[in-house]
């Protein structure tokens, strides 16, 4: 068995895919109105986006009764400040709660948290 991809739900699959295209520099492998798949330049596990009517973004950090995050993306960067500036220019927003000094939690346009960090791959 092999994991072939990770899927994020969104109000608009194409819109969220466009954000991650800018953020990661990956290309579209599949592009349908309610489904988009991005693939990394060197191959490997892809990232897909599915339109979910009534999408409710997770709350970070969660509190009782809120929509919980069930997964998040960890994205390694060479320079944390530059990575954060790039993420903001692409449309991400810095989360209000930051649990670690060497990691920055951001929220994508659909509200999914993702972490930027530096360190070995």
UniProtKB/TrEMBL annotation:
It comes from the Bacteria. CDD domains: VOC. Coiled coil: none annotated. PROSITE patterns: VOC. Signal peptide: none annotated. Pfam families: Glyoxalase_6. Residues 2-121 form the VOC domain. This is Glyoxalase. It comes from Phytohabitans suffuscus.
